[in-house]
Amino acid sequence: MTSFFTAAPNYCSRFGVAVLLVVLADFLFYGQPAGIAVFLFALLIAAAIVAVHPAAFSDGRVWLKPAALLVALLPLAENVSALSVAIALSALVVFALSLSGRLRHRIARIAGQIALFWLAAPFRFANDFIRWRKTARRFGGRRIRLAAIAVWVMPLTLGAVFLALFGAANPVIDHWLSLIDLMKLLDLIQLARIAFWLFVLAGVWAFLRPRLPRFRQRLPRPNHPPADAQPAAVPDRHVVEDIVFGKAAILRALVVFNILFALQTGLDATYLWGGAALPDGLSYAAYAHRGAYPLIVTALLAAGFVLAALRPGSETSADPLIRRLVYAWVAQNIMLVISSILRLDLYVGIYALTYWRIAAFVWMVLVAAGLALIIARIALGKSNEWLLSANLLTLSAMFYACCFINFAATIANYNVDHSFEMTGQGIPLDAWYLRSLGPGAFPALDRFFDHQSRTAEAGATLELARLRAIDEGWYRTVQENWRAWSFRDWRLLRYLDTRGSFVVPDATKPYGTGR
After folding, report:
1. Neighbours of 282 (CB within 10 A)
2. What are phi and psi of 169, to 5 degrees?
C-alpha cells in the first residue's frame, strides 16, 4: 500500500501539468494559425519534462541536453512544416527518454525507441489511467476517492466565501467577477474542442510519462517426433546456400554486375556528358526522364546485394578480390546516382522545377551518401548496426538542413528565371502553379509581373495580378496574429513592406502604372 500512496501524488502532479499544457494548447492552437506558437509550445513541453524529472539535473553536464534540444527546435522558429514538426517531436522524445534514464546510446537503437514511443503514445494515458484505477481499487479505492474529494470541500467552500467578500469590498474584483459569463463558457464545450483536448492530453502525457512498450517473448514449445519416425529426406540447406549464394557465386555475380554497370556508365558518359547525338526520335528530355528513377532503384538493389553478400566476418568479406570488385561496383553505383542527378537536372531544365523533383534530388543525394557509407563499412570492418546508425545520422542532418530552405521560393525563382517569357527559351511559365506555392512565391511573381509590364503580354497576367493582390491581403491579415509569426514570414513581410502594397494595374493603362 505504501507504494500506491507514494505513486499517487506523482500521478496527480503530472496530471495537473498535463491539464495546464492542454489549456495552453487551446489558447495557442485551437482556431489559430500555426507559427511561432508551435515553437513556444515545444519549449513548454520541454519545461514540463524537466519539472517532472528534477533528479535528472544532478549531473553537471546535463545542460548539454537542453542545448541540443534547442538546436533541434530551431527549425520551428524558421518555419512550421511537417518536416520541422517531425524533427521537433523526435527531439522531444529523445529528451524525455534521456531525462528518465531510458535512452539507448546507439543511433540505430534510438531510432527504434522513437518508433516504439510513438506506437505506444496514443494509448499511454488510457493505460496509465486503467492501471491507476485497478491499483486504487485494490487498496480501497472508494475510500481513497472520497477522501480525495473531501479534502477539497473546505478549501473550495471557504475560498468561494472569501472571493464573494472580496468582490463586495473591492470594485475591481467585483468588475472581474461580472465579466465571467457562465453561458459563454458553456459555449466553449464543443465536440471538436473536446476531441482536441483529449488529443493534446494523450500527446503531452506520453512525454510526461515516457515509457516504451514491453513485448512478451513466447517460448517455442518443443515438438518431439515419435521415436520410430524417420526424418524426411530433404537437401541440406547449407549445401544449397553454399552453391547458390557461396563465394564462387558472389564472385561471378560481381564480375557480371561490373560489366553491366560499366556499359550503362559508358552510355551516360557518351550521351549525357559527351553530348553525342541520340538515335532518331529520342530527345535528351526523354532520355533523362526515363532513366532518372529506375537507376535509383537499381542502386538500392545493388546496396542490398552488397550488404547480404559481404556480411561481417563471412568468408566473402575476407576475400581481397571480392572486396576489390565490390569497391569497383559500389563506385559505379555512385556514378550511376550522379548520372541520375544529371538526368533529372536536364529534365528540370526543360520542364521546370516542382516539389517532387526537388524531393528526387534530395533522395538521390541520400542514396549516394548511403553507397559511400557502404564502402566505409567494408573498408573499416564495421557492423551493419554501425551502417544503419551512420545512415540515420546522414538522413537526420539532411532533413534538418532542409527545414531552413524555402523550397517554395526556390521553385518559384528557378521557374521564373528559366521561363520562356524571361529568357526566350524553354517552356512558358506556369504562373498559376507558382501561385499555388503560397506566399513564398510572391517575390518571384513580382519579378515576373515587372517583366511582363514591359512587354505586350501584360493583359494576359491581369487576372493573376488581381489574385496576387488578394493573396497578399489575406497573408497580411493572418500575420497580424502573433501566433503565426516565424522567421521566414518576418523576412517576407520585410520584403513586402519595402516594396509597398501591391496594386492591381488598370486594364486601360500600361501594366505597372500606379504602383
Report:
1. 12
2. -95, -25
CA gap 329, 314 in Å, rounded: 19
* pLDDT at residue 6, rounded to an integer: 45
State the pLDDT at residue 197: 86
CA-to-CA separations, 499 to 322, 446, 478, 494, 496, in angstroms, rounded = 63, 10, 19, 9, 5
CA dihedral 408, 413, 414, 415 (to 10 degrees): 90
pLDDT tens digits for 164-197?
Answer: 765 665 566 666 667 666 666 666 667 788 888 8
Amino acid 42: pLDDT: 93
Angle (CA) 228 232 237, round 5°: 135
- Residue 243: the pLDDT is 53
Q: What is the DSSP letter of 439?
A: G
| Residue given cell 473531501 in the structure block | 150
Q: Give 113's contacts (C-beta < 8 A, 6+ positions apart).
A: 93, 97, 102, 103, 104, 212
Cell of 303: 546496396
In contact, 72 and 403? CB cutoff 8 Å: no
**Cα-Cα-Cα-Cα dihedral of 208, 211, 212, 217, to 10°?**
-160
Query: 7-38 burial by CB neighbour count: b if 16+ within 10 A, else e?
Result: ebeebeebbebbeebbebbbebbeeebbbbbb
Q: How far is CA 314 from CA 50, 311, 327, 378, in A?
A: 47, 6, 17, 12
Q: Is the dihedral of CA 335, 336, 341, 345 positive or negative?
A: positive
pLDDT in tens, 382-438: 888 888 889 899 999 999 999 999 999 999 999 999 888 888 887 888 888 998 999
What is the spatial distance between Cα 417 and Cα 448, in angstroms, rounded to a whole number? 9
**Residue ranges in the chain modelled with pLDDT below 50:** 1-7, 217, 219, 233-234, 237-241, 507-515
